[in-house]
Design goal:
Keywords: Hydrolase, Protease, Ubl conjugation pathway. This protein is of the alpha+beta class. Helices cover about 40% and strands about 20% of the residues. Helix 2 packs across helix 3, helix 3 packs antiparallel against helix 4 and helix 3 packs across helix 5.
Length: about 130
């Protein structure tokens, strides 16, 4: 698919390690500057509930938690899953490697209180943008 076919507009998030958390803050709070709150809440949620099975890849739960609190550490599907559960939202992720064609790569379906899902684009393996 192309963004035009999908009916979305790309909102580029800064690529400084907080892109995912900015996109989530934009959706949940309508304010991307609250990314630090989303980062802390998501890391804490994942640490406490341990519902994200890939936390083990970061070493111990404490190592995971400390690494995710570092503002330069990017989030990935573990943080998407945790944020979806924490904020009670549905998240759809479209992946692109060429910034032209997009395929839906992930869906985190929760009983959402929002009328529409959070839609993200994953560029390569590490950079998230918002799709509005």
């Amino acid at each position: 698919y192309t963004l035009h076919n999908l009916g979305y507009t790309l909102v580029t998030e800064d690529g400084d390690g907080a892109c995912l958390f900015r996109a989530i803050a934009r959706y949940v709070f309508n304010d991307p500057s609250l990314h630090h709150l989303v980062r802390t809440a998501t890391a804490t949620y994942n640490y406490i509930t341990m519902t994200a099975p890939m936390i083990a890849e970061a070493g111990t739960p404490e190592q995971y938690y400390r690494s995710r609190l570092d503002p330069r550490t990017w989030g990935d599907n573990v943080e998407v899953q945790g944020a979806a559960a924490l904020f009670g939202i549905t998240v759809v992720v479209f992946h692109t490697t060429d910034d032209v064609s997009y395929t839906m790569s992930q869906l985190y379906n929760n009983a959402s209180q929002h009328p529409w899902p959070l839609v993200l684009s994953l560029h390569g393996q590490y950079h998230y943008n918002s799709l509005l």
